[in-house]
Amino acid sequence: MGGDRQPEPEYNPAMNVETGDLPRAGDVFVGRERELADLTAGLDEAASGRGSLFLLAGEPGIGKSRLADELATTARERGFLVLWGRCWEAGGAPAYWPWVQALRTHVRASDANTLADELGEGASHVAQILPDVAAAFPDLRPPEAGDPDSARFLLFDATTSFVMNISAITPILLVLDDLHVADTASLLMLRFAAGEIAQNRILAIGAYRDPDLERDGPLPPELIALAREPTTTFLSLSGLEEPDVTRFIDQTTGVAPPASLVSAVFEETEGNPLFVGELVRLLAQEGELTSVVPGTRLAIPASVREVIGRRLAHLSVRSKDALTLASVLGQEFAAKPHADLE
Predict the structure, then answer these.
(1) pTM as predicted
(2) 174 and 204 in contact (C-beta within 8 Å)?
(3) pLDDT digits (tens, 9 = 90+) for 48-89
(4) Which of 36, 49, 276, 285 is most buried by a 10 A CB count?
(5) Using alpha carbons only, how large is the chain's radius of gyration in Å?
(6) What's the burial of 307, exposed, middle or buried (CB within 10 Å: 0-12/13-18/19+)?
C-alpha cells in the first residue's frame, strides 16, 4: 500500500493495431491549423480586452466540438475560465439550457462573497434561470413583475453583466455547442451578449450543424442574425484534405499509410473526421490497413451508416431514390428531366 506507484508505460497506438484498439477520432487533432490559429488569435484579442464571437458551422462529424475542445485546452493553459454549455437535441430542455450549463459550474465553485460581487444588482434576475444562485442566496426576492419584453431584457442584461464581471477578474472562453437546436431565448441572449462583449475579456464560440433543409428546415433566424453582429466571425469547417488524412491514419494507428489506403479512405469519407476515424478503426480490426490496393471500395462501418441513416430518415421516397442513383453516378453528373419523375 505504501510503496511507490510504478508509472504506466507510454501509450503507443501501433501496439494495438491488429486488435483495432485505437484512439477515437476525437483523440487526434489534424487539419485545423488555420482555424485554430484564427481562434487562438481571438483568445489573444480577448485577453487584451477586445472580445468577440466566432460561429463554427459544418456537417455532423466534421469536428466542430473537437476544434472548440482544442481551443479550450489552450485557453486553460493561458489562464482563461472555460464555460461550456451544450443544447439538448432530444427536446424537453428548459429555456436557456446551454447558458445554465455554462454558468452553473462557476456558480457552484464560487464562494458567496465573490458570487455576490459578480452578480451585482442582477442577482434576482439571474436566479430565475439558475437555481444554484437562488440556493446560494435564499433571501433573494424575485424581480418585480413587469411586461414580458422588459423582464427578458433585464434578464439578458443581468446575465451578460454577470459574465462580464467575471471576466474582469479572469478572462473567459464561453462555448455554446449545438446551437442549431437551441431555444429561441438562448439565441436571443447570445445575440444580446455579442453586442456587449467587444470591450471585455470574453471570447464566445457558438457551434452549430449545417441543417438538412428537408429534415431540419432552415436555420433559426436568430442564429442568422448572430452572424451579422459586428463582433462575429464565421468559420465553416469542411472535410480534411488527403495529406491530413495521411497524418490522421499515421497518428491513430502508428502505421505509415500507403497512398492507396489514403486515397480510398478519402474518396469514401470526403475527409469527414468522424467517418475517417470509424473507417480506419474497421480496417484495423480486420487487419486490412496495409492491404488496400488502388480502386478498392471500402465497406462502410455500421456507426457511419447510422449517422447517415439518421440524416436520410426524414427524406421523401423520391428524394431517397434520387440519392440512390446519385451514389452510383458519382459526385458530379448532369440532371435531366425524366417522365417518371415529373
Answers:
(1) 0.79
(2) yes
(3) 999 999 999 999 899 999 999 999 999 999 999 999 999 998
(4) 276
(5) 24
(6) middle
Residue with the larger pLDDT of the pair 2 and 211: 211
State the Cα–Cα distance between residues 31 and 80, nearest whole angstrom: 25
Q: What is the CB neighbour count within 10 angstroms for residue 44?
A: 11
Helices (H), 93-216: 97-109, 112-119, 123-126, 131-136, 148-169, 184-194
Helices (H), the chain: 33-47, 64-77, 97-109, 112-119, 123-126, 131-136, 148-169, 184-194, 221-226, 242-253, 259-269, 273-285, 302-312, 317-329
Contact status, residue 245 vs residue 271, Cβ threshold 8 Å = yes
Minimal CA–CA distance to 133: which of 82, 169, 175, 99?
A: 99
Contacts with 184 (C-beta within 8 Å, 6 or more apart), sequence order: 220, 222
Angle separating helix axes 242-253 and 259-269, nearest 10 degrees: 110
Distance of CA 5 to the CA centre of its chain: 37
